């Protein structure tokens, strides 16, 4: 009865690296398409294989996913075989035609990136004039048509103080708001990352929204890198932190078929390409995501080494840990650790 | 003990101010018994499901861009 096989329940898939923006925090350095992106047939085969592996939610992202001419074929196929679809977009291309296609797909959510509540902040970060107005218009169009809509705000030094204004704009819109910390990968410069204190302020801010607003008014959540094991704040993530899920219950696939345990991990974590091996073979390989599947407490490093939550926590988000400390299991952006320092 | 609590509250107020939170809102945002019980129940449900399905089952959704549907009592993840 007990089935301990790993299952890629939620898969994040970069369907194209092509993007019409040039965001300073882009973890994929998106802009041009990759040299040899998967064609429609390869995409359909991949979706079928993912269904066989037990995936029930695929998040399509980019680049800008609506720049792929066949995005609708991909999303429709997912729907037809019973896989939920989330689309992460910068909101610049959403028009009446796309809205009508989205209505038929009935996505789990369409997540729009909003980096500030002013043209100055949003357009500066996105490096495209007018992107703020287009983004807001898209949000309104999606809401008008009752399409599940989410907002993703990636916070760093340049925009975190604008969070209260974004909150005030979003209250009552019936959207989910995900706040995530920018990680120094791709184009994002290391010197723009939040300080630990600012990171804690943001977690406190999320907790304050949870306390003061019903989910009907504003359903807010911290992304997976807003943890862990705080003794002062309530959990601000969607679920309690149970350790990095790369290769355990999630997986990342790039537009040229490269496979990693999680889409946000650096390229050194690529462990196969679906053009050389099927996704099933890659996922079922005993060495896939060895850093999580074969994790032991001895793998913890730095401050995490002697932490009482280490075994379960696995040292937080591997992407944050790796890009900041160079180690896999030593994420310094940890509420528990920050609290320990705070009350020394 | 009181000194420690005061130190924490003072620091929290300072951190809350950065994002426009007043003292009362900041202190109200701290976790309470209800939060602790809720998180224990959710963890228990996930571990229970994990024992029968995979290891563990739901947190794969951490990475997907939260949806309003994730806030419904019974959502896709439980099926």
Report on the structure:
The complex is a heterodimer of chains A (344) and B (79). Chain A is of the alpha/beta class and 344 residues long. Chain A is built from twelve helices and nine strands. Chain A has helices at residues 40-53, 71-80, 96-105, 119-126, 131-144, 163-170, 196-212, 279-284, 290-293, 310-313, 318-325, 335-342, and strands at 10-14, 57-61, 84-89, 109-113, 149-155, 176-181, 219-222, 250-253, 259-260. In chain A, helix 1 runs parallel beside helix 2 (71-80). Chain B is mainly alpha-helical and 79 residues long. Chain B has three helices and no strands. Chain B has helices spanning 2-17, 23-28, 33-52. The N and C termini of chain B lie far apart (46 Å). The mean pLDDT of chain B is 77. Classes of the chains: A alpha/beta (344), B mainly alpha (79). At the A-B interface, strand 3, strand 5, strand 6 and helix 7 of A face helix 1, helix 2 and helix 3 of B.
Spell out the blueprint of helices and strands.
The complex is a heterodimer of chains A (344) and B (79).
Chain A: E1 10-14, H1 40-53, E2 57-61, H2 71-80, E3 84-89, H3 96-105, E4 109-113, H4 119-126, H5 131-144, E5 149-155, H6 163-170, E6 176-181, H7 196-212, E7 219-222, E8 250-253, E9 259-260, H8 279-284, H9 290-293, H10 310-313, H11 318-325, H12 335-342
Parallel strand pairs in A: 1-2, 1-8, 2-3, 3-4, 4-5, 5-6, 6-7
Antiparallel strand pairs in A: 8-9
Helix pairs in contact in A: 1-2, 2-3
Chain B: H1 2-17, H2 23-28, H3 33-52
